[in-house]
Amino acid sequence: MYVNSDARSHSRPTIRTGDASNLKAGEAAAAFMLEMMSSLADTAHNDDQQGEGNEDVRWSHYSNRLMRHFKSWNGQGETFDQGSNCTHLAHVAALAMVLWTLERDQAGCDDRPATRAEQLLMQLRDGL
Predict the structure, then answer these.
(1) Which of 51, 96, 101, 112 has the fewest Cβ atoms within 10 angstroms?
(2) What confidence tens digit (pLDDT) does each residue in 66-122 have?
(3) Does residue 57 form part of some domain?
(4) Rounded-to-integer distance, Cα 102 and Cα 119, Å
(5) What is the pLDDT of residue 64?
(6) What's the confidence (pLDDT) of residue 50?
(7) What are the angstrom distances between the C-alpha of 48 and each of 43, 57, 123?
(8) DSSP single-letter state for residue 23
(9) Torsion sign over Cα 78, 84, 90, 93
(10) Domain for residue 9, yes or no?
Protein backbone atom coordinates (compact mmCIF):
# COMPACT_ATOMS: atom_id res chain seq x y z
CA MET A 1 0.00 0.00 0.00
CA TYR A 2 1.31 3.42 -0.92
CA VAL A 3 0.83 6.05 1.76
CA ASN A 4 1.58 9.69 1.08
CA SER A 5 3.97 10.80 3.85
CA ASP A 6 3.71 14.55 3.17
CA ALA A 7 2.19 15.96 6.38
CA ARG A 8 0.77 18.94 4.47
CA SER A 9 -1.12 16.73 2.07
CA HIS A 10 -4.80 16.17 2.72
CA SER A 11 -5.04 13.14 0.46
CA ARG A 12 -6.04 9.83 1.92
CA PRO A 13 -3.98 6.63 1.66
CA THR A 14 -4.65 4.75 -1.55
CA ILE A 15 -4.15 1.17 -2.64
CA ARG A 16 -2.83 0.51 -6.11
CA THR A 17 -4.53 -2.36 -7.89
CA GLY A 18 -3.44 -4.45 -10.86
CA ASP A 19 -5.66 -2.57 -13.33
CA ALA A 20 -3.87 0.71 -12.50
CA SER A 21 -6.97 2.19 -10.85
CA ASN A 22 -6.70 3.65 -7.37
CA LEU A 23 -9.17 2.92 -4.64
CA LYS A 24 -9.21 4.71 -1.36
CA ALA A 25 -8.27 2.37 1.47
CA GLY A 26 -11.80 2.43 2.91
CA GLU A 27 -13.33 1.63 -0.48
CA ALA A 28 -10.90 -1.23 -0.97
CA ALA A 29 -11.70 -2.61 2.49
CA ALA A 30 -15.43 -2.37 1.80
CA ALA A 31 -15.04 -4.11 -1.56
CA PHE A 32 -13.01 -6.85 0.06
CA MET A 33 -15.56 -7.31 2.85
CA LEU A 34 -18.37 -7.62 0.29
CA GLU A 35 -16.43 -10.25 -1.64
CA MET A 36 -15.54 -12.09 1.55
CA MET A 37 -19.22 -12.11 2.57
CA SER A 38 -20.08 -13.55 -0.84
CA SER A 39 -17.45 -16.21 -0.25
CA LEU A 40 -18.96 -16.96 3.18
CA ALA A 41 -22.37 -17.36 1.55
CA ASP A 42 -20.82 -19.80 -0.92
CA THR A 43 -19.25 -21.72 1.99
CA ALA A 44 -22.58 -21.86 3.84
CA HIS A 45 -24.37 -23.03 0.69
CA ASN A 46 -21.81 -25.80 0.14
CA ASP A 47 -22.10 -26.88 3.77
CA ASP A 48 -25.91 -27.01 3.50
CA GLN A 49 -25.59 -29.18 0.40
CA GLN A 50 -23.28 -31.57 2.26
CA GLY A 51 -25.43 -31.67 5.39
CA GLU A 52 -22.77 -30.24 7.70
CA GLY A 53 -24.16 -29.60 11.18
CA ASN A 54 -22.38 -27.17 13.47
CA GLU A 55 -21.80 -29.78 16.17
CA ASP A 56 -20.37 -32.27 13.64
CA VAL A 57 -18.19 -29.88 11.67
CA ARG A 58 -14.58 -30.91 11.51
CA TRP A 59 -12.08 -28.10 11.54
CA SER A 60 -10.09 -29.92 8.85
CA HIS A 61 -13.05 -29.45 6.49
CA TYR A 62 -12.39 -25.71 6.55
CA SER A 63 -8.61 -25.79 6.88
CA ASN A 64 -8.32 -28.11 3.87
CA ARG A 65 -10.48 -25.75 1.81
CA LEU A 66 -8.44 -22.77 3.02
CA MET A 67 -5.22 -24.46 1.93
CA ARG A 68 -6.72 -25.45 -1.45
CA HIS A 69 -7.64 -21.83 -2.18
CA PHE A 70 -4.26 -20.56 -0.98
CA LYS A 71 -2.42 -23.09 -3.14
CA SER A 72 -4.55 -22.15 -6.15
CA TRP A 73 -3.65 -18.51 -5.63
CA ASN A 74 -0.01 -18.90 -4.60
CA GLY A 75 1.11 -22.08 -6.33
CA GLN A 76 -0.94 -21.96 -9.52
CA GLY A 77 -1.24 -18.22 -10.03
CA GLU A 78 -5.04 -18.28 -10.19
CA THR A 79 -6.99 -15.24 -9.04
CA PHE A 80 -10.62 -16.37 -9.25
CA ASP A 81 -12.34 -19.53 -8.06
CA GLN A 82 -14.32 -20.81 -11.04
CA GLY A 83 -17.13 -22.24 -8.92
CA SER A 84 -17.98 -19.05 -7.02
CA ASN A 85 -16.44 -16.26 -9.13
CA CYS A 86 -14.90 -14.91 -5.90
CA THR A 87 -11.17 -14.48 -5.57
CA HIS A 88 -9.20 -17.25 -3.93
CA LEU A 89 -7.92 -14.73 -1.36
CA ALA A 90 -11.49 -13.84 -0.37
CA HIS A 91 -12.09 -17.55 0.24
CA VAL A 92 -8.89 -17.78 2.31
CA ALA A 93 -9.96 -14.83 4.47
CA ALA A 94 -13.53 -16.12 4.88
CA LEU A 95 -12.39 -19.63 5.80
CA ALA A 96 -9.83 -18.24 8.26
CA MET A 97 -12.67 -16.29 9.89
CA VAL A 98 -14.77 -19.48 10.12
CA LEU A 99 -11.88 -21.34 11.77
CA TRP A 100 -11.23 -18.44 14.15
CA THR A 101 -14.90 -18.48 15.17
CA LEU A 102 -14.92 -22.27 15.69
CA GLU A 103 -11.80 -22.04 17.85
CA ARG A 104 -13.08 -19.04 19.82
CA ASP A 105 -16.44 -20.72 20.49
CA GLN A 106 -14.88 -24.16 21.01
CA ALA A 107 -17.39 -25.48 18.48
CA GLY A 108 -17.19 -28.41 16.13
CA CYS A 109 -14.49 -31.05 16.20
CA ASP A 110 -10.91 -29.84 16.57
CA ASP A 111 -9.24 -32.51 14.47
CA ARG A 112 -5.96 -30.75 13.79
CA PRO A 113 -3.17 -33.33 13.55
CA ALA A 114 -1.40 -32.25 16.75
CA THR A 115 -4.68 -32.14 18.68
CA ARG A 116 -5.77 -35.51 17.31
CA ALA A 117 -2.42 -37.07 18.27
CA GLU A 118 -2.75 -35.69 21.80
CA GLN A 119 -6.27 -37.13 22.05
CA LEU A 120 -5.06 -40.56 20.94
CA LEU A 121 -2.21 -40.49 23.45
CA MET A 122 -4.62 -39.60 26.25
CA GLN A 123 -6.93 -42.46 25.22
CA LEU A 124 -3.98 -44.85 25.26
CA ARG A 125 -2.90 -43.67 28.71
CA ASP A 126 -6.45 -43.95 30.06
CA GLY A 127 -6.75 -47.44 28.64
CA LEU A 128 -3.61 -48.72 30.41
Answers:
(1) 51
(2) 999 999 999 999 999 998 888 999 999 999 999 999 999 999 998 887 877 787 887
(3) yes
(4) 18
(5) 93
(6) 55
(7) 9, 12, 33
(8) E
(9) negative
(10) no
Q: Is residue 87 part of a domain?
A: yes
Give a yes or no: residue 26 inside a domain.
no
Whole-number Å distance between alpha carbons of 66 and 6: 39
- pTM of the shown model: 0.64
Residues contacting residue 92 through CB under 8 Å, at least 6 positions apart: 66, 69, 70, 73
3-state secondary structure of 15: strand
CA 40 to each of CA 7, 24, 87: distance values in angstroms, whole numbers, following the listed order: 39, 24, 12
State CA 5 to chain mean position distance: 32
Domain hosting 77: range is 35-127
Helices (H), 75-112: 88-105
Domain count, the chain: 1
pLDDT at 4: 36
pLDDT digits (tens, 9 = 90+) for 39-68: 887 776 666 555 555 557 899 999 999 999
